[in-house]
Write a structure and sequence with these properties.
twelve-stranded mixed β-sheet, alpha/beta, 34% helix, binds S-adenosylmethionine, binds iron/sulfur cluster
């Protein structure tokens, strides 16, 4: 059985973008009320007194958009300061990153994933939806965030691309080319039907194997690490400084090597992205005085059954079954 030592922590379910695949416009999302969010103190108590004693040493801050969370730099500082923390990372859309990058780095965040689905501001805007500012400004802010993160020294710096048929799939080579001169790691993610199964219906998703073939034809491709500890299969364009990762949860289920669980911003602990079986309401437990020792026991129990829970529902996603959460609500 895989050792599960990696916790993905959603800091907030809200976002300043509304990406088609994550928060489709028009979707009625029930946002978590302020009083139902785990406070910073509760979150730190859970990490320090519950997750670390159970064996968790690697943490990723995500959302929604984690940089919208009040006190995010202080949270990073605290989590990084626990001696047991081996790895702390963040996934962000990068829009608010430029002015925060240095502070986050100094607080102890050394690696970061930034979502970038297109190099074209208009296509980018089409993907992220129409909240506020013009497309060029939004794209430029994200690009500026990426450049600043690079200059500050984040390493690895990963760029996440969700490949959307008919929208950004013609940019695969341009996006892959970003890894040639800079030590950036571009990761192509197969679109998943999470709370949005009707989206792109008929067009389906594009498999990682197809993407690799395109890249191989242009430059050649060498395998760096296939079936590693994480979900990505890693390749490299010969001579490139950075790598290419392929996250193929649709074409090549990697549930059997899953090493993570997810804590939602309202304190629900989920054993699997697409299966809520066994989830635990840690916020209510904490607020009603359940001891952290008892919570450790509950999590240990959940971990023993996790391999049976791991998602068997990736075809239907969360759109069928008894709930229809989007990625932003679960914590991507
Ligand atoms: N807001 C941050 C961001 O966009 O990077 C962090 C949260 S977001 C939910 C985390 C990652 O999930 C992003 O890289 C996003 O592209 C990916 N994602 C969201 N919905 C997805 C879907 N339906 N299929 C595949 N990836 C998805
Ligand atoms: Fe926001 Fe990230 Fe979801 Fe896009 S993928 S809507 S940026 S949470």
């Amino acid at each position: 059985m895989n050792q599960v030592d990696y916790l993905r922590i959603s800091l907030i379910d809200r976002c300043n973008f509304s990406c088609q695949y994550c928060m489709p416009e028009g979707a009625e999302l029930d946002y978590i009320l302020q009083q139902d969010l785990l406070t910073n103190a509760e979150l730190l108590t859970l990490i320090k007194e519950v997750f670390i004693p159970v064996g968790f040493t690697r943490f990723r801050l995500t959302g929604g958009e984690p940089l919208l969370r009040r006190g995010v730099v202080e949270l990073v500082e605290q989590i990084a300061s626990f001696p047991q923390t081996k790895d702390l990372s963040m996934t962000t859309n990068g829009f608010l990153l430029a002015p925060l990058a240095q502070n986050l780095y100094d607080a102890g965040l050394k690696r970061i994933n930034i979502s970038l689905d297109s190099l074209d501001a208009d296509i980018f805007n089409q993907v992220i939806g129409n909240k506020g500012l013009t497309s060029r400004l939004k794209w430029e802010s994200v690009w500026n965030g990426i450049q600043t993160a690079h200059d500050v020294g984040f390493d690895p710096l990963k760029l996440n691309v969700v490949v959307i048929p008919g929208v950004n799939d013609h940019e695969i080579l341009d996006l892959a080319a970003l890894t040639i001169d800079k030590q950036w790691h571009v990761r192509f993610i197969e679109f998943m039907p999470i709370g949005n199964g009707d989206l792109f219906q008929g067009k389906g998703w594009i498999s990682s194997a197809e993407l690799r073939q395109q890249i191989r034809t242009k430059w050649g491709l060498t395998e760096s690490q296939v079936c590693g500890a994480g979900p990505a299969d890693i390749f490299r364009i010969p001579g490139a400084k950075g790598t290419l990762g392929f996250i193929s949860q649709m074409s090549d289920c990697f549930c059997d090597r899953c090493n993570r669980i997810r804590l939602a911003a309202d304190g629900w602990l989920r054993p699997c992205l697409l299966n809520e079986t066994g989830q635990i309401d840690l916020k209510t437990a904490l607020r009603s005085g359940v001891s952290t020792t008892k919570l450790q026991g509950q999590i240990q129990e959940l971990l023993t059954v996790k391999s049976e829970i791991n998602f068997k529902q990736r075809e239907s996603g969360t759109t069928t079954g008894n709930y229809s959460r989007t990625m932003s609500q679960i914590g991507g």
